[in-house]
Amino acid sequence: MDNGYWVKFEARRVAPSTQLPHGIRYSLTLHNRDNKRVLGFDNSHAVKPGRNRFGARKTTWDHKHRRDDIAAYEFETHGKLLEDFWQEVERVIAERR
Fold it and tell me: What strands, in cross-sheet order, belong to the sheet with 24-31?
């Protein structure tokens, strides 16, 4: 990709659970030319508990990493996940030009 960026996708089917209700464990990452991850969407681990807009605790593991920040990600569909990831990739690369 531009300026030496590259992406890595990992996905595997798993039994649906409370944390992984869509039955897929995934990791979508963007790396810079120094092989440092600068963006990632994944559900490979729990995130610090928080509250969603309805006041209940979030139990799914979906989240995104941007630099050192981690934020919950509201998984809707597999297609939307890819769309959101590529939009963030474009944003990150544009910021660093």
Answer: 6-13, 24-31, 37-42, 63-66, 69-72
Domains in the chain, number: 1
pTM: 0.82
What tens digit of pLDDT does each residue of 24-35 get? 999 999 999 999
Q: How far apart are CA 36 and CA 58, in angstroms?
A: 29
Reported as a single tens digit per residue, the pLDDT across 76-85 is 999 999 999 9
Task: Give, rounded to a whole angstrom, the gap between the first and last alpha carbons of the chain.
Answer: 13
Question: Which residues fall within 8 angstroms of residue 35, CB to CB, at 6 or more apart?
Answer: none
Count how many Cα atoms sit within 13 Å of the Cα of residue 14 in the half-sphere of its side chain.
Answer: 15
